[in-house]
Amino acid sequence: MSGYTPIRILPSEGIEVLDQTLLPHEERYLRLETVAAVAEAIRSLRVRGAPLLGVTGACGMAIAGEERGAGPEALAQAAAELRATRPTAVDLGAMIDEALAAAGEAGGEGERQAALWVFAERALARQRERDAALARHGRELPGLEGAVLTHCNTGGLATGGEGTALAVIAEAWRAGRIERCYATETRPLLQGARLTMWELGALGIPGTLLPDTAAASLIASGQVSAVITGADRIAANGDGANKVGTYGLAAVAARHGVPFYLAAPLSTFDANTPSGEAIPIEFRGEDEVGGFGDDRWSPDGGGVYNPAFDVTPAELIAGIVCESGVLRPPYGPAIAALTR
Question: Do residues 329 and 317 lie in contact, with contact meaning Cβ atoms separated by under 8 Å?
């Protein structure tokens, strides 16, 4: 794992999270001690990335036990508040459900509070183990050599461990297979420009930043041998939801014979969602479009279309890397076996 961590668990007190909205200019940790503070941090993307959202959700439930008591009604209300913050990433809701189950197996209120903290710590440790295994499985992917392209942010900032797609890239770089990683800006919130380029620098991997609109021509030019991204939810048939713009990369990659891969832990697979058509897509506010932060360059009065995610059909995905190995199409049977 790299020398930074996006989350620190303080049992019986709260958590500290690295405010990712301030990177790369400032590394500031926020202390969160209430359910409302955790919900705000998730909603505002101070903490983000599907696996890390799952861990943060588990921590939020432990915080709820301290703040509101660990009774069933109080925990159910906190679960509903946290689950509503980001509807697309399946890890968040799944980990909240697991936390509720862990509390339900404990005895009195004190035991339930302790059980929630133990579960949160185990969730983070488990995620770090998953990241390491996923990276090992992915480093020998066909085409993962020379230069590769990634989208959004999938390093340790997104998981609390080594990451997903960026962890695979780092393993392949250490093995001498990859020489450079191209990263899209990932508009409108610039997770690629701000976060992925920051992490590539921390890892010592040569990185090249490009506008989202230049990605298609980069793929067509033959300068990248593979495209690899993370995922926020993978349906039972292998359709994958990820940061908006991913679908376009996969389509262009298929047009030019460049393999497109997803990298995600098993917690991101959703056997209860039959296909990408059933994945709820989060739409975000108009303040994120037409400017960045306090700087605005678009005139007022126009409409905004701002989906946070899109869905890549399974037929465009050459392989899905998880901690159990590399899945190949057709994905349905393999996903059913792994999530059974």
Answer: yes
If you search the block for the tokens 């359910």, which residue do you land on?
Answer: 35
Asked if 312 and 244 count as a contact pair (C-beta separation under 8 A), the reply is: no
232 tagged catalytic = yes
Contact 84, 34 (CB under 8 A): no
How far is residue 125's CA from residue 59's CA, in Å, rounded to a whole number?
A: 13
Q: Which residues pair with 307 in a beta bridge?
A: 283
Distance of CA 148 to the CA centre of its chain: 19
Read off the DSSP letter of residue 301: T
CA angle 61-99-31, nearest 5°? Answer: 30
Arithmetic mean of pLDDT, 1-9: 79
Q: How is residue 184 written in tokens? A: 């899209």
Which one-letter amino acid corresponds to residue 159? T
User: Left, alpha or beta for 239 (phi > 0: left; psi -120 to 50: alpha)?
Assistant: beta
Judged against a pLDDT cut of 90, whether residue 208 lies above it is answered with yes
Q: Which of 7, 11, 12 is nearest to 29 (CA)?
A: 7
Annotated catalytic residue within 212, 232, 270, 310:
232
What burial class does residue 157 get, using C-beta atoms within 10 Å of its C-beta: 0-12 exposed, 13-18 middle, 19+ buried? buried
Give the model confidence (pLDDT) of 121-133 as tens digits: 999 999 999 999 9
Give the span between the Cα atoms of 4 and 157, in whole angstroms: 9
Q: Report the relative pairing of strands 207-210 and 178-184 from DSSP bridges.
A: parallel
Amino acid occupying residue 272: N
Burial of 26 (0-12, 13-18, 19+ CB in 10 A): exposed
Quote the tokens at residue 17: 């999270």
- Give the C-alpha separation, 338 to 6, whole Å: 28
Tell me, rounded to whole angstroms, the distance of Cα 68 from its chain centroid.
29
Provide the β-strand partners of residue 207: 181
Tokens of 40: 């705000």
pLDDT in tens, 139-164: 999 999 999 999 999 999 999 999 99
